Amino acid sequence: MISNIEIISRLLLSAFLGGLIGMEREANNRPAGLRTHVLVTLGSALIMMISIDGFRGTGFNGNGGEPARLAAQVVSGIGFLGAGTILRNGTSIKGLTTAASLWVCGGIGLAVGSGYYLGGLVTVVIVLFTLMRLGMLERSFLKKKYRVLIVNSIERSGLIGELATVLGSYSMDIRDIKIIRDDEDNALGTIEIRFMLKVPKSFPNSRLLEGIHNIKGVKEVGWQM
Question: Domain MgtC/SapB/SrpB/YhiD N-terminal, which positions (predicted)?
Answer without folding.
Answer: 11-139
